[in-house]
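> call design_seq(struct)
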């Protein structure tokens, strides 16, 4: 299991601290706000849903790196971040946005 520990530690050091703590969360928030603006104000619903999906992926990447830094392991961090967060919450959010802003 030494190889698994080494891979997990390398993944936890993929990004710099500034990127993990500032750039990725702010990017996810900006993409989310832009998606809501596109869905509410314009008729560019495809762009709005696409930006919402990108914001969910940015936050899932942030969560997976943070979990890998806290020694959860790479498989656990991918399962939690991309499995539970991105698919379940992203899918539920996409359905709710479609119901709220759909034509």
């Amino acid at each position: 299991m030494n190889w698994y520990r080494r891979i997990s530690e390398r993944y936890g050091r993929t990004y710099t601290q500034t990127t993990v703590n500032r750039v990725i969360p702010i990017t996810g928030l900006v993409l989310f706000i832009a998606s809501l603006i596109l869905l509410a104000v314009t008729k560019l619903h495809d762009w709005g849903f696409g930006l919402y999906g990108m914001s969910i992926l940015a936050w899932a990447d942030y969560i997976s790196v943070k979990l890998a830094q806290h020694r959860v392991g790479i498989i656990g961090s991918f399962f939690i971040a991309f499995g539970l967060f991105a698919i379940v919450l992203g899918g539920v959010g996409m359905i709710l946005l479609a119901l709220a802003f759909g034509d």
